[in-house]
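Tokens for Mitochondrial thiamine pyrophosphate transporter. Go.
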Amino acid sequence: ASVIDFLELGWQWLMAKLAPPTDADINSKGHRFLQHKSLGILHGESPYRRLCVKVVLSPLFEGVILILILFTCVLLTLESSRLEVDSARYRFIQHADSITTIIFTGEMILKILAQGFVMHEESYLRSSANALDCLIVLSSLISLAIVDVKASPLKVLRALRALRPLKVVSRDEGLQVVVSSLMQAAPSVLYLAVFGFMLSYIFAIIGVQMFSAQFDGCNDNTVVDKTECLSQESFWQENRQMPRMWNRPPYNFDSVPNAMIALLVVTTMDNWELIMFQAMDSVGEGQQPVENNKSWLCIYFLIFVICSSMVWFNIFVGVVVNTYSKMQMQLGGKTFVTERQRQLEVSLKVKNIQRTSGWSHEVPSNPLRYVCWWTCLKWQFDTFMFVVVCVSTVVMATVHEGQTERHTEILWYLEITFTIIFFLEAMVKVVGKGWTAYWVDSWNRFDFLVMLMSSCELVLKLSASSLGTLAIGPVLRSLRISRMFKIVGKFKGLRVLFNTLLMSLPALYNVGTLLFLVCFVYAVVGMAFFGEVDGYEDGAINEHANFWYFGNALLTVLRIVTGDNWGALLADIMNCNDGGYPNWECGIPVFPLIYFCTLIGLCSAIMLNLIVAIIIDKFIQNASEEGLLKEGDGLKNESILDVLRRIAYLDIFTMALKRKIVAARAYSIEEEEEEVEDLGNQ
């Protein structure tokens, strides 16, 4: 009966959540758009408009739309420019896309009738999310009307459908917080981006003057100049007759735009030395390059690398971190997290405090409990367990292929010994502290579970002829390595790092989700524009890195974001010259540049550095709470900031921040001394 009552209560709660709002609910929420006419016709008390408002504000309607958005995301992953038009998969995608487009059109019409179109503040198009929805719906309707599936405009319209996953942003509070925070940080980032552009522009002009038309060369290294190269149609190489060609490398300094593209590759340090070597081998316009002919030209690239990659880029990271810190102070520590996630962080901190003061220091009256309690307090006990954990980890690392039976037998007895020691450790703590005080500590719970898994493995191995015959055996065996994490709870520094990761999870989840959505959108757009680009065996675009299907496209986007040979990918797409496809199908020269630059700028330069900023902020908070950052302890403070600087490559920013803190403390001390003097004079 209790189960039935519970199910009935759950059903009533679900129905209450999905129930459409009543007129009283609409009036109590004070929707100001009802004060204005919709489309100049429907007033706020119109029953038709009230019905539209109820439908639009209904949780059930929002849930259905969210499910449709997720369904369209699945459809986008199934699409490919290489699908046959008469295939069943292509027809299913087309029919499903038509149905979802009609439903989204109905959603747009209902919202326009409920809120109005554009004339007042709370109208439909005044919301950026609704404006994006309108653009996607209109592009989808136009694409349905185009019959020619290979038409160039259709690719643009279908690429706009890739923005559909961004509709999730307007329906998720965490993503909205991240987007609004990014909008606040945009001005500071934009100023520094303009500075970086001007820096590259100056070096590009210098590079054009020095290297214009000097990177070209013949594929026959025996020639001297362009005239000799083109005087014959072919040459012999490795017993094969090869056509002679005067080639121009994809990255050159023939014009300022080309030079800026080459310098962008140098800034990201992606095989930048290859461009430098080309400059060092240059001879002159129309002359065949000679190895190290002008080796002194490496100075140009070294200066640019220092100015851009080492100075400007680290300043960029510092600006992102500084902007994040300012927003943290302005918003009271709520940057990139919702109020609910903020409450979760506070509850985790409260539990951490409860853990540190979890058990009483009263001396037990029972002799056995007293001995166990006294043992737990001794530092020798923790040191011994630390040594046991380290030794057990080293023993596990000695397992190898082809080991002798004697070696296996020794490992087996050592494993029994370690498990018994960990079991005795748990028993000593439980008896000495009591079960309640023992279980309150999360590290004790972790130790207990590790010990339990090790014990289960031993029991299974003793009861079975071969643990390998059991499916769970390898799983339990691999989980033994988790003993290493027992060390984390023993040392304050490691505990700070672990707590930093734990406290960063809500903000990292929000930023990571938005980062995934952006990569998802770019993967679908890449499929629409670059899906017809064929690769070749030795090229960057090949069977592993391409935009033919969604899986490969997403992996390729992740390669670009992480800076893995992205310059070669861009070169292959921009210089695509497949006779089987027109220029649009094979890749537009300008669009790949826009695609790659925006992807790198948005994901690599901004969002990944925001993750760095979040981790640094949480690290400083946890280090302060653990007592590693204390006022007046300059050496300890300096040591931790040095570690942060090496990890996050924030040499300039951290030192400047430290000077500001010292100056602020000195100023506050001077003020206190002046106040004391004033009181003394009075």
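The radius of gyration is 33 Å.
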